[in-house]
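BACKBONE GEOMETRY TOKENS:
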Amino acid sequence: RHVFERLADAESRVHDVPPDRVHFHEVGAIDALVDIVGTAICLHDLGWPIVVSSPVELGSGFARCAHGSLPVPAPATLELLAGVPTRRGAVPFEATTPTGAALLVTAADRFDEAPALVPLRVGHGIGARDGPLPNLLRLILADPVGEAAAEDLVQLECNIDDMNPEFY
């Protein structure tokens, strides 16, 4: 619910309408619902661990959406990532969607370069988009090393915007 609320707040600021009047275009698609609900289920099953995200890659170029062609990142993505470290230009397409940004800012406890970790388990999900970087989700369940060892950490890395939900 918090992910959808953040998404509605960002879209309402971009479109200058109240949050209850926001129309979710692409966000209402089945894959976005699967992304959000699937992430919530995963985090719940993991006991809501501490989530650390690396700076967020935004991509470059233009994205096609319900409003036509927009420069990357989309306005709602920028609204959601206010105050979050980002990178641009690693890929010539939209690397972070508003849905992905809402998931990250809701789930991540902090944004930081990858801390030293001792991997315990690793999971992967692979998307269908071909490009210069792999289109995959990788989740590393790990024990921290050094100063961070007093807290449990999970590293979540993803680029799954175009992933077929059947592959989750």
